[in-house]
Amino acid sequence: MGVPGRKPKPALQVVREGNPGHRPVREGMKVPPAELAEPDWGDLFPVVKVPGKPRAPRGADDEQLKEYRREVEAWQRVKLASEAGAFGREVAAREWERTVPILKFAAGLSAVDRSTVVDYCVCVARLEWCERRLSVEGLITMGQRGPCRNPLTTVATQYRTQLKAYIGELGLSPSARGRIAPPEGGDDDDDGSVFD
Questions:
Q1: Handedness of CA 178, 184, 187, 193 (dihedral sign)
Q2: pLDDT tens track for 52-106
Q3: Bridge-partner residues for 141, per DSSP?
Q4: Burial letters for 76-100: b for 16+ Cβ neighbours within 10 Å, e otherwise?
Q5: Is residue 99 within 8 Å of 116, Cβ to Cβ?
Q6: pLDDT value at position 194?
Q7: Distance separating the N- and C-terminal Cα atoms of the chain
Q8: Distance, CA of 144 to CA of 33 (rounded, Å)
């Protein structure tokens, strides 16, 4: 359970602002920066083999047609899971490649941060997949009782809430970047800057 109130400012920000309240400056925990190994995205988004599409039975009675429809629905779910996995692997890898080099330089990522960054990339991939499916399926779908809100809107909202938390933790927005102290030992004129 967290402590109520505002989040404490990073020590560097307090020093930059001149510490107007003259309170003791807390440095926080220091961890050594590390090279983060990109995960095998296939572990998080496994390849799903899609079987052949069921064939419609000829001269079937009502019961056989119901069974065929169930088989087609199950096949469609597997096909969608396969597409989601391929999409997730691609988007998560792209997001890792886009953010980790910058975070390593700007925030001094450590080995203990790896799971947070992996979760962030998975969250981005799943949110993008939800938004893509919502564009295809629409915000309103047919439920058992008629038109209703697509359940993916709820899933997307949950991922968006989690994404907001990761953005704050990793400093991935302008306001969040102001709360993160850059790693020590970096020189402003360093030739190895990720921004060059």
A1: negative
A2: 999 988 887 888 889 999 999 999 999 999 999 999 999 999 999 999 998 887 7
A3: 148
A4: eeeeeeeebbebbbebbbebbeebb
A5: no
A6: 45
A7: 42
A8: 53
- Give, in order, the Cα–Cα distances in Å from 81 to each of 46, 78, 87: 9, 5, 10
Relative to beta strand 146-149, strand 140-143 is: antiparallel
Say how far residue 145 (Cα) sits from the centre of its chain.
33
Dihedral over Cα of 85, 86, 88, 89: its sign = positive
Mean pLDDT of the chain: 84
* DSSP symbol at 180: S
Contacts of 160 (CB under 8 A, 6+ apart): 127
146: β partners: 143
List Cβ neighbours of 162 (8 Å cut-off, separation of 6 or more): 123
Whole-model pTM: value is 0.75
Question: Which CA distances in Å does 104 have to 53, 98, 158?
Answer: 46, 11, 27
What type of residue is 175?
Answer: S
Average pLDDT score over residue span 176-194: 58
Q: What is the pLDDT of residues 2-39, one digit of tens each?
A: 445 666 665 555 655 677 777 776 665 566 778 889 99
- Residue 188 confidence (pLDDT) above 60: no
The structure tokens 């000829």 sit at 58
